[in-house]
Amino acid sequence: MDSDLQIWQLFQVGHEASFKVLFERYNQPLYNYGFKFTQDNAVIEDSIQELFVKLWSNKENLNTEVSVKNYLYKSFRRILIKNIEQTIKRAHVTNSAIEHLPFTIELPHDVSMIRQERVLEIKDKLDQALSNMTPRQREIIHLRFFEELTYAEIASIMGLSTKDTYKLYYRALDNLKKHFGKFGVLVLLHLLNQVKI
Amino acid sequence: MDPQFLKYKNYKAADFFDDEDFVHSKLGQIENDKDFWKRLGAHDRELAVQMDIAELWMTLIKQQPVTNRGFTTDQRWENIQHAIPSYSRKQNQQLLIRKIVKWTARAAAIIIFIFIVYDISQFGTKSTNTTYGERTEVLLPDASLINLNSNSKLSYVRNWKTDKPREVWFEGEGMFEVKHTAIKNRLRENDLFVVHVGELSLTVLGTKFNVKDRRGRIEVTLFEGSVKIYGKNGVDRLLKPGETFIYDEQSKANEIVPNTNPSKVSSWTRGELNIEHSNLAHIVSVLEDNYGYQVIVEDPSLLNKRFTGIIPLKGIDDVLFVIKHTMNVDIVVKNKQIIIKPN
User: What is the pTM of this model?
Assistant: First the structure.
């Protein structure tokens, strides 16, 4: 399979098949990412369409040396937030600041592969800790561990400085520490014997 | 014990969750010594538990259900194929509109600029000056014609209000032919034409007159129509055709004398110097006032010598020639100085 960058450069010179490959690789992950901001299906679909239509129409003006995934997520996020804000404005809700834009992390329901009840307990606590975080903190964690992006990439996608991204992340970790601080060693030992991931 | 283990002493799950090396190793982002974490766990059971929790968090987050409730990839691709041409069209239209707007704005800016410049030029006064030896004609907005002799100045406010008298300010010598604007039996203020000269105001309707303001002496000679003359210190005289009004700015004295030779007064407008019954003093004043020379007459008795005739006024050479040969004097011209001495 060709690398993203190779496909990207072919797409830029007007190679339609490469554009299609790029689209096929990223349209579903982008939908998934978008769904964490809003449950409004139409807004997400419109944003995906807008992103790829604009990409194709402006392909000559795009940078040739990019981190493709990074660029797509960043552009998609910008378009999506713009579109969400437009729908919010239409509904006359005043508070449309980006910090308050929701971001959901939905942990797996099906943990049968993990089997253990104690694991469920950890999952619940993680769930709690996540829900105590701000949406943007959740977004960082999602991009870090689900999309497996680096801090620099996350900062770029979210339009933050790397330093601010770190700060947000550290405060998120405080939440985790609080929820898991009281774990008894014995419980943990017990867990350890049984957890097999 | 591996000395690197020390770093992880007292580490909790959240600390591992935050540890770049640990996360990278578990994500497989970099080739990391996976064995290291096993050895660390074996060395310290508590750390093993914390590492397991951190790894479990990562796994849980990684295993989030993937949502795709929208279109299928193929449907989306189809939609995009449809949207691209219309988007390009819209983009081109916007580009065109932006271009048109840009150029319209530029054109508007230029037009507005021209208007502003024109407007500003209408403010204040417009002046016409003549230098020594120069004569010119000024046609005013009301079609009045003013002939300016040398070393004279005429100024007026550009935007003549329709309900106010026409006003000009004047210095030097000039022949005024004021356009008569009044309709029969209906005189309005704006039919008046006022010439401010020195301390006097000459109020006229339509008329022709010569104004000469030289050496503290104002002479108004009327050819046609009538002129009302007002002055600061109670001067209020009506001038009739063929009369000359004389005002002395120093003594404030004024008098009206009959003008026996109107063509002599207006001779300058024809480019002539009429020296009929004039003495040398008169010619000297013309040379000084109109040509800017300093004239030194070494024998003052010469000044009263009288002349007769008309000299063409192309320059001063003709004048000097006439003086030289009728008076039998010697004339030296040096820069802007003329010295007349007895031969």
Answer: 0.55
